[in-house]
Each structure stands twice: as C-alpha cells, then as structure tokens.
Amino acid sequence: MPLNERSSTTAAASGSTRDRILDAAATVMRRDGLVRATTKVIAREAECSEALLYKYFPDKLDIFVSVLTERSPRLDVGVDLDGTATVRENVVVLVEGLLGFYAANFPLAASIFGSPELLAAHRDAMRQRQAGPQGPSSAIAHYLEAEATRGRINDVDTDAIARLLTGAALHEAFLATYQGDSIADPHALAQRLVDSLTLD
User: Are residues 126 and 170 in the same domain?
Assistant: First the structure.
C-alpha cells in the first residue's frame, strides 16, 4: 500500500475511533449523568480500553467538553426566513425549532453546572468558537430585526421578544426533562407562545 493511502487509512480509522468514543460518552452522559460517566463506563460503551480513550483525549474533562461541543444537537434558525410566508408563521417555525433544540440539549447542558471546572472549560471552548448560550436568542432577534427592516412588523423590542421566546422554550425543556417526558405537541405550543405576542 502506498504511503499516502496508508496515512489516509490511519487517519480515517483514528477519526472513527474518536467518533465512537464521543458517541459512547454522549450516550453515557445522557443515560447515567455526569457523575457516573467514568472513563471505565465510557470505554465499555465504546467497546475499547481505557488506555485507548487517553490516546485521543488527555483527560475525562476533555472528553466531556468535546461531547458538549461536538455532540450537542444544533439549532437550525432558518437564516433565510425573512420575507417568506408570514412573520407569525416563521416565528412559529423558529419557536418549534427552539423547543426541539432545548429538549434535546437540556440533559447534557444541565450537567455542566454540576462541575465548576467543566463549566469553565466549556465556556472557554464556546468563546473560541464565538458561540454560546446567547446564540438562539440572538438568532431570533436577528430574524425579527430583518423583518422590521422590511416593514413586515411594527416597532417592537426584538431583543425582548427573542428573550421571551427562548426563555419559554428553555422552561418547557426543563419541565419535560424534570418529568422524564417529552414536550407534548411542540407545534401547538409554539403557536400558543407566538399568539401571546403582538408582532404586527
């Protein structure tokens, strides 16, 4: 096998092993919680040795931060929504997306607050990516500002509306996680939340 083929094969295997470890760690963190997510349990879930974990990650904290930054569900904020459908319909779509995003993320995200060290490491990782928990609210505000510029909504406090909607979505995710349940009918809930606002 030529050298360049061998090195690309090795890189692919390395990537797949690292991915397998992260997938296993995410599963363990969601299922068992942060305290019980030991390297021994993660290695068993990944079907590898603990020594192999440390080949890819310097310590358990790095595994956790990598899970939080690479395995957390992403929010699709629909950046090209402005000027399409109605503002109300678009905001319902955005809020329904927020509900799904927070419901999927809450168990993992909440775990970082149990460890000051993990919270600080996650905060640093988010700063390096120019990201963080303000992202969803900022995205909603940006959408509303774009619609205001188009004259499709009146003079409203876009930042306050964005914070109210993201706060409501986060609250519902907290309740669902606490109750060990899922959010019942996210679309209907999104409609109710949007109907409570004056967007025209």
Answer: yes
Q: Which amino acid is at 68?
A: L
Reported as a single tens digit per residue, the pLDDT across 31-67 is 888 878 899 999 999 999 999 999 999 988 889 888 8
Residue 27 resides in a domain: yes
**pLDDT for residue 159 is more than 70:** yes
* 80 within domain boundaries: no
User: Tokens for 98?
Assistant: 């927020």
Query: 28 in a domain, yes or no?
Result: yes
Of 25, 40, 4, the C-alpha closest to 111 is 25
Position 92 scores a pLDDT of: 93
Question: What's the domain count of the chain?
Answer: 2
- Cα(37)–Cα(19) distance, rounded to whole angstroms? 17
Strand, helix or coil for residue 76: coil
Q: What string of DSSP letters covers 33-46?
A: -TTT--HHHHHHHH
Structural domain including 154 reads 87-195
pTM (global) more than 0.70: yes
